[in-house]
């Protein structure tokens, strides 16, 4: 009686290595297809740019004072009474960095209760 030798189970590691290698080549090739920028091109720098609040925004200072279109106001809801119905859809708030968050939320709720459709907080975006 001749005994058959049991075949050892081979793992398909070669196939897996081939697939990974092909994916690596694919990403290397597709990453270089985008045209590079011209070498003489210099992009705009905005780090020195002086920021200003949008003209139709409620500015809230760190001490809680509010101003609308350059004049001080005492109550956030008073802003909505001066606006036509179409301009009440979006109200922009420009808070000072040192304004407490609870005060900002309170003003936002006051504006929503007074009839503002959407209250948007304008912030500075730092790309450093």
TrEMBL record:
Q: How does it sit in the membrane?
A: Single-pass membrane protein; Single-pass type II membrane protein
Q: Which InterPro entries match?
A: ExbD (IPR003400)
Q: Name one GO biological process term.
A: protein transport
Q: Which UniProt keywords apply?
A: Cell membrane, Membrane, Protein transport, Transmembrane, Transmembrane helix, Transport
Organism listed in the record:
Pseudooceanicola batsensis (strain ATCC BAA-863 / DSM 15984 / KCTC 12145 / HTCC2597) (Oceanicola batsensis)
Q: Which Pfam families match?
A: ExbD
**Regions that span the bilayer:** 12-34
Q: Which family does it belong to?
A: Belongs to the ExbD/TolR family.
Source organism, top-level taxon: Bacteria
Q: What is this protein called?
A: Biopolymer transport protein ExbD/TolR
